[in-house]
């Protein structure tokens, strides 16, 4: 009895992997900028471009600039830090933060396409902030939007400025809008002033 031979046929590529699929944080700087501007974050990005002009080398090829804000937030006492971004980005940032003297855990508000599009992500962030706002533990909570939530227009500015006496600070720190770690540190410092 002979077995049928299944031919090996090369798979046709639907998307050219070198061009990205146009989705998520791999869409490219221009697409992410356009998405962020169309979702209401144009003013923030314009301010970042004015405050942090790119030099002759544009953006250096280094780790996500948001690490600057995360690192500063993690080193402040009585401050909780919560990230909102793609799981792979959050993993990389939190993993690296422990090599730089992180003294506490990083909060993470996960999302998927549905929660991002319907606005449920903002509700989840708001619920997380309310849950963490314990004045016996914290004086401030820093929420950092990474690329995808920023490009999607997640409105951290709508969060209350204070809950139970705990200061709430929401900042957008997209890798496509903030050039380096140093500028990302400035974004958090400026928001806290």
Structural commentary:
This protein has a single domain, classed as Nitrogenase molybdenum iron protein domain (Rossmann fold, 3-Layer(aba) Sandwich), CATH 3.40.50.1980. Helix 2 (66-75) crosses helix 7. The protein is built from seven helices and five strands, in the order ααβαβααβαββα. The chain is globular. Helices cover 41% and strands 12% of the residues. A five-stranded mixed sheet has the order 2-1-3-5-4, with helices on both faces.
Quote the average pLDDT: 84
Order of helices and strands: HHEHEHHEHEEH
Into how many domains do the coordinates divide? Answer: 1
DSSP helix count? 7
Which descriptor suits the 3D outline? globular
Q: What would CATH call the class?
A: Alpha Beta
The Rg value, from CA coordinates, equals 19 Å
**What's the count of strands?**
5
- Major pleated sheet: 5 strands, mixed
CATH topology category name? Rossmann fold
Amino-to-carboxy terminus distance: 80 Å
Overall CATH architecture:
3-Layer(aba) Sandwich
Q: Proportion of β residues?
A: 5-15%
């Amino acid at each position: 009895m002979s077995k049928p031979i299944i031919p090996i046929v090369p798979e046709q590529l639907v998307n050219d992997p070198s061009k990205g699929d146009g989705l998520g944080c791999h869409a490219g700087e221009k697409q992410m900028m356009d998405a962020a501007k169309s979702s209401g974050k144009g003013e923030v990005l314009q301010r970042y471009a004015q405050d942090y002009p790119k030099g002759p080398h544009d953006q250096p090829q280094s780790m996500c600039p948001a690490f600057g804000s995360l690192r500063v937030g993690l080193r402040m006492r009585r401050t909780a830090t919560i990230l909102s971004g793609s799981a792979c980005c959050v993993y990389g940032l939190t993993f690296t933060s422990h090599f730089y003297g992180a003294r506490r855990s990083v909060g993470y508000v996960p999302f998927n396409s549905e929660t991002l599009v319907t606005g449920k992500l903002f509700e989840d962030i708001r619920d997380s902030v309310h849950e963490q706002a314990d004045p016996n533990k914290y004086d401030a909570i820093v929420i950092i939007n990474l690329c995808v939530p920023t490009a999607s227009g997640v409105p951290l500015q709508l969060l209350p400025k204070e809950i139970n006496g705990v200061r709430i600070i929401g900042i957008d720190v997209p890798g496509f809008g903030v050039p380096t770690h140093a500028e990302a540190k400035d974004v958090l410092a400026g928001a806290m002033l």
